[in-house]
Specification:
The chain has 207 residues and is mainly α. It has nine helices and no strands. The N and C termini lie far apart (70 Å).
């Protein structure tokens, strides 16, 4: 009995390793160009496995994309939420810096999501799964904004903050003629201006 349990555990571990290998390869390929231009053959090649092996874990390309996006965004939320919920006083500037730093560090994930936002087309069930995780991102932003005792529509303000941060990344992540440190510093300077404008808006709206 113990031997069978050990064997089952090893098989499960092997399955998880192969599944993670596929997801890692998918993230890289999906991040290289738009969702509709990617093929399962490319993902299989990047993973170093046969194309047929992918279908053992994921029924189709859409399911693989959604699972990859779902996992990665979940990790992003967990990383930022830990800080937000443990700090009594949250600096909006620090949060925005953390937000940008995470996406800069996890560049393939950010590119994958951005490509999809601009060109993606998936079924209703898959879209709902992505919407669930997107709502969690907005919940996190809203949690931060509520710490400033804003009395207005915090959901709308969270959408505004998300749009501003996304715009900074899209506009300046590969800003030509600048080094990587210079690009990051420039994005942080713009984020600081956005933070100031938001705080002024919040304070004015209270009166």
């Amino acid at each position: 009995m113990a031997g069978r349990n050990t064997l089952n555990k090893l098989k499960q571990q092997e399955r998880e390793i192969r599944e993670n290998l596929i997801v890692d390869a998918a993230r890289t390929v999906f991040g290289s160009r738009t969702y509709d231009q990617v093929s399962m053959n490319e993902i299989a090649k990047a993973a170093g496995i046969a194309k047929s092996s992918i279908y053992t874990y994921f029924p189709n390309q859409e399911a693989l994309f959604v699972e990859t996006a779902f996992r990665d965004t979940g990790k992003f939320i967990a990383a930022l939420k830990k800080r937000v919920l443990t700090e009594r006083s949250t600096s909006l500037e620090a949060f925005m810096d953390d937000y940008l730093d995470y996406h800069i560090e996890h560049d393939a994930h950010w590119r994958m999501i951005t490509h999809f936002a601009l060109h993606g087309n998936i079924g209703e069930a898959s879209a709902e799964k992505l919407n669930q995780i997107s709502r969690q991102v907005m919940d996190l932003l809203e949690t931060v904004l509520k710490k400033f005792d804003y009395k207005g529509d915090t959901r709308l303000l969270s959408h505004t903050l998300f749009a501003a941060l996304s715009g900074i990344m899209i506009s300046f992540r590969k800003y030509p003629g600048r080094s990587e440190p210079a690009r990051i510093a420039h994005m942080k300077r713009i984020a600081k201006l956005v933070e100031r404008m938001l705080l002024v808006f919040i304070q004015q709206d209270e009166h």
